[in-house]
Amino acid sequence: MPYNLLSQIKRQRVSDGAVVPILEPCEATARQLVLIWPQLGDFDSLEYAWWLQRERGRLQAQDISIRAVGIGDRAAGQQFCAYTGFPSDRLFVDPTAELHQSLNLYPGLALKLPALSTTQTAWLNLVLMCAGIGSPGTLAEVLRGYRGDRRAPQLIGDDEVVQATPLPPIKGEFFQWAGGKGFQRPFELATLRLRNMAEVLSHWKTYVPDAAYLTQRGATFLFDAQGNLLYEHRDPGILGFAADKSYPLSFLK
C-alpha cells in the first residue's frame, strides 16, 4: 500500500532543511493529498503547483492537507516555492528519485546509446518524450494549450498581467479576442507554460542540479484520515499529471 511506504519515508524539508518524515507531523485533517512530483523544473510540477495555488481556498474548505516530494535539492525547492507560492514547509526534496522508484512510478523513456553519457541519454529521451514517444497524450495536451478548451475554466483573469518572455506583458482581457471569456481560451494555457519555461531556463542549474532524472514521472495519492487510499493517479508521460486535463483537481469533488 502506498500509505505504508509514504508514512515511513523521510526526506529533506525545504523550509528548514530538516530531514523528517514527509507525513509527520500531519494535521488531523479529513484527507491527505500526497504529490510525488518529477523534477522541480518540470512542466508538470510547476503547472500542478499553479493549480493548487488557484484552488487553495477550496482545499482548506475541504480540510485537505498537502505534502509534495519533488526531484531536486533544497535550493531547487526554495526557487520553486518562491516562484509558485507553494508552501516550503509542505515541500520535500528527493535528489535521486529514490521514492519514485520505490513506488514503481514511470521512469520515462529509457532508450540507451553507448556513446552517450547519462546526462546526454536523459536529454535524448526527454526530447523524444516531448515528441510523444514513450509519452502518451503529450502532443494532444500541448495542442490543447494552443487551441483552448471549453470544458476548462478561464485561467487568466481579465485584469491579470502575464509576463512570458520573450513575449511582451499580456493582459488577461487580450484572450477575449481569441474566443471570449469564462473558459480556457486559445493560447491561454500555452502562455502560462511559456512563462514557466522562461522561469526554468533562467534558473536551470538551480532547478535541475542533476539532469539524470529528467524523464522520471510522478503521481498523485489521496488518503482519508485513516490512511485508506481514496484516489491514485500515476503519470504516464509529460503533461500527464492529471487524469482530467481540463480540471486537474476534479478528483477532489
Describe this structure in words.
By secondary structure, the chain is α+β, with helices and mostly antiparallel strands. It has one domain (2-252): Glutaredoxin, CATH 3.40.30. It contains 9 helices and 9 strands. The chain has helices at residues 2-6, 43-54, 56-61, 74-84, 98-102, 118-130, 138-147, 188-202, 204-207; strands spanning 10-13, 19-21, 31-39, 64-71, 91-93, 161-162, 170-171, 219-224, 229-234. The strands form 2 sheets. Strands 2-1-5-4-3-8-9 form a 7-stranded mixed sheet. A two-stranded antiparallel ribbon has the order 6-7. Helix 7 crosses helix 8 (188-202). The longest helix has 15 residues, at 188-202. The protein is globular and about 50 Å long.
List strands and helices in order, with pairings.
Layout: H1 2-6, E1 10-13, E2 19-21, E3 31-39, H2 43-54, H3 56-61, E4 64-71, H4 74-84, E5 91-93, H5 98-102, H6 118-130, H7 138-147, E6 161-162, E7 170-171, H8 188-202, H9 204-207, E8 219-224, E9 229-234
Parallel strand pairs: 3-4, 4-5
Antiparallel strand pairs: 1-2, 1-5, 3-8, 6-7, 8-9
Helix pairs in contact: 7-8
Keywords:
9 helices; about 250 residues; globular; seven-stranded mixed beta sheet; two-stranded antiparallel sheet; PXL2A/B/C; AhpC/TSA family protein; alpha+beta; Glutaredoxin
Count of DSSP helices? 9
CATH topology: Glutaredoxin
Mean pLDDT: 94
Unreliable stretches: none
Protein name: AhpC/TSA family protein
InterPro entries: PXL2A/B/C
Pfam families: AhpC-TSA_2 (PF13911)
Organism: Stenomitos frigidus AS-A4
